[in-house]
Amino acid sequence: MTISAKLLFVDDEPDIQELIRQKFRKQLRQGQYQFIFALNGIEALEKISEHTDLDLVITDMNMPGMDGLTLLSKLKELNPTFKTIVISAGGMENIQKAMNAGAFDFLVKPINLQDLELTIKKTLEFVYQNQTNKQKLQQAEEQLIQSEKMSALGLLVASVAHEINNPVGYISINLKYAAEYVTNILQLLNLYQKEFPYPGEKIEKKIHEIELEYLIEDLPKIFASMQHGTECIRDLSSSLRMFARSDTQTKIAFNLHEGIDNTLLILKHRLKANEHRPMIEVIRDYGELPLVECYPGQLNQVLMNLLSNAIDALEESNHNLSFSEIQMNPNRISISTHLSEDQNWALIHIQDNGVGIPSEAMEKIFEHLFTSKPVGQGTGLGLSISRQIIVEKHGGKLWCKSDPGKVTEFVIELPI
Question: What is this structure's pTM?
């Protein structure tokens, strides 16, 4: 057994404590077991309030103050999932009462220490299996909820994008014609200036008022700027549709670079410079990749999680640094893609030069509900769900390496 277990042993015979310590001295020395002792039910309840992480209770039936049956009923009120082993010298009738009261297993006195060891081991295995199953169920529920959210988001974005695209289309088309019309008018105005170089005092005054020369020069630039704006809106709308697509039923061939670019476009507002720091540099080094069979919506979710975490790490590294200090060592996210040597895997590397991950946290970063972010800023679900999506949904790998205080790199491996 590799998991450290905390056990409460309740018995009014003081000698039993030394006997237990002698029997389980090897497990105690190796840190497999930790025993807490109480002399009766009242003291046991006090110990339970002090040690909320107990895995198992082993209790005698006949004790002064509060007997084992009463303790069982109290335990059931505190936590219905508590597992208890009862020990009785009063025959099968007492044992039957204890089992009916919710005991998981029983032993008879005098205690056979070998039986006790086996019963403890069997009960703990059941406890840990229950905990594992509960955690898997919770993770499955969270993944289902997240998938439903992504599906709902996909429908919402598709609807909004459709509503955006129509007026943007009208504006874009009309801008094209408006620019042509204005060009024709400006050409006609230029011809008038050549044919009638002296239009009169009133017209000369108006030309001066409206700064005609500057207007002629600037007007085409304004139309070009408006056209660029409509193209940006259209690109963002397209990226949102691609990012939040809800095709979760079947895998489809997907361009990974397109997924990365769309995610970066959505995160563009977080990459821009602000009053506290310069723009975050994004370096893209894309290799030759084939289309990959995957669930694009879910894969985009992973990319969003990893890139958002990278930005968070950079912002954390900027703490107490001035604008100029950050400028000397710019915030940077590097994204590279390539095929594995055997050509069977597509690899995506996402690296940031932020704070890095402490060595003590590296083993826990993919654990359910683990987060190193301040309260209110992290749920502990992002990396856990990301690994589920990559490993369980796609048969891939997601791993991390970090140099604390310098860089962090996440690597996604997807089968071709």
Answer: 0.53
Main-chain phi, psi angles of 15, to 5 degrees: -65, -25
pLDDT in tens, 152-198: 555 566 666 667 777 888 888 888 889 889 889 989 998 988 888 88
